Amino acid sequence: MGTGKRRPLLSSAAAILTLVATAGAGPLVGPAPARAADTVRGLQWYLDPLKIPQAHRLAKGRGVVVAVVDSGVYAAHPDLKGQVLPGKGLSADVAADGRSDPDGQKGHGTGMAGVIAGRGGGVMHELGIAPEAKILPVGLGADDRNADIAAGIRWAADHGADVINVSLVNDSRKRELSDAVRYALGKDAVVVAGAGNVEQGMVGVQAPASIPGVVAAGGTGRSGGLWSGSATGPELVLAAPGERIIAPAPPTVSPNGYVVNDGTSLSTAIISGVAALVRSRYPDLDAANVVNRLIRTARDAGPSGRDPRFGFGVVDPLAALTRSVPPVSANPLLEAAPPAPSASSSRDGRDDEPMVTFGLAKGAGPALATGFCLLVVAGLVVLLVWLTRRGVRGRAASRPQPPLGPPPGHRPPGFGPPPGYAPLPGPGQPPGYPPAGNGQPAGFGPPPGPGSPHPYQPRPVSQPTAPHPYPPDTGPVPPPTGPEQG
């Protein structure tokens, strides 16, 4: 954008909630509201379309560290107690360990942490996508000065982050961000970043989301289609819900401790949470294969294949945890795009051979010009004779020959049509939501075979170990009883 500022990717249409049965704001105490829609869980509309309850029977993020490079994280929020590790404050207005959130308008970093790893514990608490993952806060502060997102990414990579969530943009510092992303990929981290919001003037995908290797997150709406505020572009990788998402907030933002927002920030947090689920279920997969699994199991929502609105499709947590996906040896998002043609090598798009041109030096005499013309005529005569003889041979060669191969239409045994991707139909979607995956297809198991290491992912690809044995009915530890904190 050229401003040198980092921008949080939340829409301005934020709402502070009143989550009690009576009118007025206040702490979350007393009996649960009569209507499910009045509860925190009731407002988490995206959990069912994404089949998060089913996914949690397989993995909840245990053993995975997700860095949140953002304003900071208010670690005292009831939904985040015990979830936030000591991190790093890179700004004077953030606690030294990153466990405070000076963003008095939206509590941006706190919201992202809650969507990723809120521990749940009842209908009045936020259930994160990966409620047993740990949050590593990297606090950049509240203001829009030149916050060093690149430094935050590097710090997270150096301190054990398995997934790095960046719900911020700063397109004016793309070179520094590119170096930081490469560094993080070399440390075997999955980097997820928001594409940007249209209302903030972000038409195309912004950095760091636009950098090769990053999972660029776009937004979908409640209907399952593209959220109207999501930036789009060819760099987009995955889409996830980004409309009317409830998230925890510091008490300085909301007395009730929650806000509802729109934005690709929230889509980013959801995808980061899904990446944490995959890393938890398959702890031996390197980052390249986690990314590959996410994009290969996404539900195609636009034109077939990758497109500028949804990328590879809408993230499908259950499919990412259950489907068989061939391993790769490198991050599939690092494949170089074909270089743009330079002015000297550009063509007008016609599929013909290059022309051969001739010219005479300035000042050449008439005799030289005449001789040159005669030479050209002689060359044309020789070419005509050669073409005539070649035509005679060609006609002889075109006569019917004995069959040397299989009859027309024959397909050798074992060869089928090229593989493709198709949406996974399944029940359980709310009205108007497109079909999603329906769990593990018959005969599918863990990814087969090891791959080979590549420059950005030093850990070798290996057969995933058996997933962590999570009992079906276990859940996050409920918060302490008694009055809840705002």
Automatic annotation (TrEMBL):
Q: Record's Pfam families?
A: Peptidase_S8 (PF00082)
Which N-terminal stretch is annotated as signal sequence? 1-25
Q: Which residues form the Peptidase S8/S53 domain?
A: 61-313
Q: Where is the active site?
A: 70, 108, 265
Spans traversing the lipid bilayer: 367-387
Bias regions of kind Pro residues — which residues? 400-434, 444-458, 466-486
Q: Which GO terms describe its molecular function?
A: serine-type endopeptidase activity
Database matches in InterPro entries: Peptidase_S8/S53_dom, Peptidase_S8/S53_dom_sf, Peptidase_S8_Asp-AS, Peptidase_S8_subtilisin-like, Peptidase_S8_subtilisin-rel, TAT_signal
Origin superkingdom: Bacteria
* UniProtKB keywords: Hydrolase, Membrane, Protease, Serine protease, Signal, Transmembrane, Transmembrane helix
Family membership: Belongs to the peptidase S8 family.
Q: What is the lineage of its organism?
A: Bacteria, Bacillati, Actinomycetota, Actinomycetes, Micromonosporales
Query: Which named protein is this?
Result: Type VII secretion-associated serine protease mycosin
Task: State the organism named in the record.
Answer: Micromonospora sicca
Give the region (Disordered) as residue ranges: 92-111, 329-354, 393-486
Q: Name one GO biological process term.
A: proteolysis
Q: Does the keyword ATP-binding apply?
A: no
Compositional bias ranges of the Basic and acidic residues kind? 96-106
